[in-house]
Specification:
alpha+beta; 2 domains; 5-stranded mixed beta sheet; 4-stranded mixed beta sheet; 3 helices; flat; disordered N terminus
Length: about 300
């Protein structure tokens, strides 16, 4: 037995090649662990993205289902009107011996029929279907022509148009102005006098006491202090001539068959809800159609 020299270690020696192999093994193990962790993270992120995609798809499906429900309801309503009209046309329409008016909004056409025959036909303009939202208060105005059975309630020659509130909302929006709703007797100070009312007029009363009625027309509304003024209902400044053409057949609730000062609009869906005709056509209707005549709009 050989005794090692004093101070010499008795531990076994490890070759440099073995050390390198062990280092490589540790590196390979660490890489494998990193790949595993990275793969798990990528899989988790892919799962989150897939969940979000499913949620977005589900929300889109819910919105689509709601839209389709509204479309189906509109189709059913339209179909009911169309079916009623087809039945009426097939049976010759009611009130034999009297004319009836039939209006197609899809075709922008109007017919006068009596006892199964068309006595008169022409083109029209109808409601645009546009929605106007007031800048203040958010009130919504929908410009549709009503469908169904209406009746000619009264007739006029040289009608004057009393602009509804939506007219002023629309004009103020285009001119970037706010609105000022005037009440009878109200006094609005302006330079050199006041704006007030007198009888059925909106007037300017000057410092010397003289009064001058103000003028207003479509596109030339009264503006006071940067605000577009809404005259009281029934005042002369809220009655516009010529806008409705030469004749009007009133259907109720503000709707009518009337002439126009914009003949180029005929044949298009551009009105605020009324049925427009060329002035020569509304004059023909005025002569042909008595009060009480049914009007079928589909």
């Amino acid at each position: 037995m050989v005794t090692p020299p004093s101070g010499t270690s008795t531990a076994p020696r490890v070759s440099s090649a073995s050390s390198r192999d062990a280092g490589r093994a540790r590196a390979l193990l660490a890489g494998a662990l990193l790949l595993a962790v990275g793969g798990a993270g990528a899989a988790a992120w892919a799962g989150v993205r897939a969940l979000r995609a499913r949620e977005a798809r589900d929300a889109a499906r819910v919105a689509l289902d709601a839209d389709m429900a509204r479309v189906d309801a509109a189709r059913r309503e339209r179909g009911a009107v169309d079916d009623t009209l087809r039945t009426l046309l097939a049976t010759g329409l009611p009130a034999a011996g009297r004319p009836v008016i039939v209006v197609s909004l899809a075709d922008n056409r109007l017919w006068v029929r009596q006892d199964g025959e068309a006595l008169f036909a022409t083109r029209i303009a109808s409601g645009s279907g546009r929605t106007l939202v007031a800048a203040t208060g958010g009130r919504r105005y929908k410009f549709d022509t009503p469908r169904g059975r209406l009746t000619v309630l009264s007739k006029e020659t040289n009608p004057r148009w009393g602009p509804p509130d939506w007219h002023y909302v629309e004009k103020a929006g285009r001119k970037k102005l706010s609105l000022l709703r005037m009440k009878p007797g109200q006094v609005i100070p302006v330079a050199g006098g006041v704006i007030t009312t007198k009888g059925r007029d909106v007037v300017r009363r000057n410092a010397d006491g003289t009064t001058v009625p103000l003028s207003a027309s479509d596109g030339r509304e009264i503006v006071v202090g940067g605000k577009l003024l809404i005259p009281p209902g029934g005042f002369n400044q809220r009655r516009y001539p010529e806008i409705l053409g030469t004749h009007r057949l009133n259907l109720g609730d503000g709707y009518a068959l009337h002439g126009t000062n914009a003949p180029a609009s005929i044949g298009r869906s551009v009105s605020h809800g009324c049925v427009r005709l060329r002035n020569e056509d509304i004059e023909t209707l005025y002569r042909m159609i008595p009060v009480g005549t049914p009007v079928y709009i589909y």
